[in-house]
Design brief:
about 35% strand, about 160 residues, disordered N terminus, globular, Jelly Rolls, alpha+beta, 7-stranded mixed sheet, 3 helices
Length: about 160
């Protein structure tokens, strides 16, 4: 009988330990860092270059993207996580600055579209191959950092 009580007590301790840890996370421990727009950040490494990127994946955030903004600091970007791997179409709707598009498949750069300006709002830019990730960075970023098709990409 005494051994059974000890085992029940140990079981409760294990259960409580599992409950306390998520509560600590809810209280703010190990919280994700988010942008001023509420998007979580991740680090994307293209070749040897690191970018601190906002991650967007909901239909509303994918549609808005970087629209209605006037700048994107050097070293920052936005990583679009698309629902399917397919030819993706992007535009410069409501953009206030120029961009480079880095078309990504898991693990590598699949294509580049450089120096796209806000004046190109009526143009749709298509990925050269089916992709499910797109990294937008400030215009000229790819040239400044020697980014090219086939480079390794991790996040």
């Amino acid at each position: 009988m005494k051994m059974r009580k000890i085992l029940i007590f140990l079981g409760w301790l294990i259960l409580l330990n599992g409950l306390v840890r998520p509560a600590a996370l809810l209280a703010g421990e190990n919280r994700l860092e988010c942008s001023e727009y509420g998007n979580p950040f991740t680090w994307v490494t293209i070749g040897k270059t690191k970018v601190k990127a906002e991650v967007v994946s909901s239909p509303e955030k994918l549609y808005l993207g970087l629209g209605k903004r006037w700048e994107l600091p050097e070293g920052r970007g936005m990583l679009f996580v698309m629902p399917q791997r397919e030819i993706q179409e992007f535009c410069m709707r409501d953009m206030g600055f120029a961009l480079d598009f880095i078309w990504l498949t898991p693990g590598r750069v699949a294509g580049l579209t450089k120096n796209v300006t806000p004046q190109d709002q009526q143009v749709d830019y298509k990925s050269p191959v089916p992709v499910n990730y797109i990294l937008e960075v400030p215009a000229g970023f790819c040239d400044r950092h020697g980014i090219k098709v086939g480079d390794k990409a991790i996040w």
